[in-house]
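Sanity check record (used in CI):
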Amino acid sequence: MELQIKTESDVCIVSIHESRIDAAVALDFKEAVRQGTLDAPAEVVLDLTQVGFVDSSGLGAIVATMKHLAPERRLVLAGLTPPVEKVFRLTRMDSVFQIHLTLEDALRAQCE
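Expected output for Anti-sigma factor antagonist:
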């Protein structure tokens, strides 16, 4: 699982550099994000700009990440591609997560 984690303006940005979050990488994804956000600030933005596919295991891994961060930290999603956005909409997870069109929009919203 290739990802980049950095902190800007009291926001932790987790950028996924994979085309898929599926059963093959779900456990690695959860562990990598968990390890990378141990000392993260209160706001964590998951940048999914490069992810073109999420299956039920991937969705479960993202939800597990949200639960791991709570209640001290909040997971916000950004940059969902149309296929990934469709999965979130069909499963109604779009009502569970705060979702922003772009990473820049998410960062701007966190700074307000």
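DSSP finds four helices and seven strands in the chain. If this sentence no longer matches the regenerated tokens, the check is flagged for review.
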